Amino acid sequence: LTPLNYNCILYSLSSPSVTQIKKVFNAASHKKVWDHFTKAQRKNIDLWKRQALEVTASPLEGFHDEDEMEMSDEERESSLKGASKRAKLDNENLKASLENSKNDSLRCQLEVYKNEVDLVKSDLKSDTDIKDQQIKVLQETIRNMQTQLLENKSREKEKESKIVDLEAKLKAANVKELLLKTKIATKSSSGTTKTSSAESEDNENPEEVPEAKSVKIETSVELLKPIKIEPDEAKIIGLVSTFLVVHPFGASTDYIWSYVHRVAPHLRPKALEEILSRYKSIFVEEVTGIGAKIERNWRFCGFDE
Predict the structure, then answer these.
(1) What is the Cα–Cα distance from 269 to 261, expressed in whole angstroms?
(2) pTM of this prediction?
(3) Taking a C-beta distance cutoff of 8 angstroms, is the pair 187, 226 a contact?
(4) pLDDT tens track for 175-219
(5) 28 contacts: CB under 8 Å, gap ≥ 6
(6) Distance from the first to the final alpha carbon of the chain
(7) b/e string for 197-234 if b means 16 or more Cβ within 10 A?
(8) Could you say which of 1, 25, 97, 135 would form a disulfide bridge with 49 (CB–CB 3.0 to 4.6 Å)?
(9) Where is this region: Disordered (predicted)?
(10) Residue 254: which of 266, 269, 243, 240 has the closest Cα?
């Protein structure tokens, strides 16, 4: 479409048609639509727009006079019809081009949106995979900790049962030891009775018994004095013996009393210390330290040679 032909078309059109063409050019000049045209298309649109403005602003008489002189009525009519057809065709092509440009723009935007959606999906999937992996690791760690805790509890129960068995065995051994010592004391008392009867016989015959023999008998009598043990006292001796066997390095009177007091609440620390001092063959007091740092501990010596 040359400028001359375009001018001919404009001059042949009526005023409403020219106004419609101006509206089309104005719509094409909008930025969103204008960006879709190439440089050549923009140049042509500018040229056509200026020509349309010139045609509407300037008088058209000279151009019509020249055309009337050069062309006959039939030629002029056919030329006007052809120009009108070409103008309609160009208008339709322009509209189609605008529609195609809009479609291309929308298609490009759609592709951009699709790409963005794919990127977001990919990022979300990677984040989800990482979080799932972290959750699995944490769950495995928790399971291992629970298993270890159960194993530790079972071991602790086994150790507690062993400790209870050992304490029971120690108590039984201490009771046997006390019974044995009680039997020895009983036998000693019976021996003392025999010795006293022998002394009475010797007293009846004082001339026959020498003085040295009398001293020896008196010493043996002192060593074999009968030991009277009350049931409560024997119970306390057994408890203290069990406690000190578990503490081979000894324990203080207060520490021992805190253990025995649970079974014998009536017992006082002073009475406990008297019992410990009374049975020196079973309990021995060890003193360590000097001055303010002195420590007094009782130790079980029933198994000492």
Answers:
(1) 9
(2) 0.30
(3) no
(4) 777 777 776 766 665 555 555 555 544 554 444 444 444 444 444
(5) 34, 37, 45, 94, 98
(6) 135
(7) eeeeeeeeeeeebeeeeeeeeeeeeeebeeeeeeeebe
(8) 25
(9) 59-87, 189-213
(10) 269
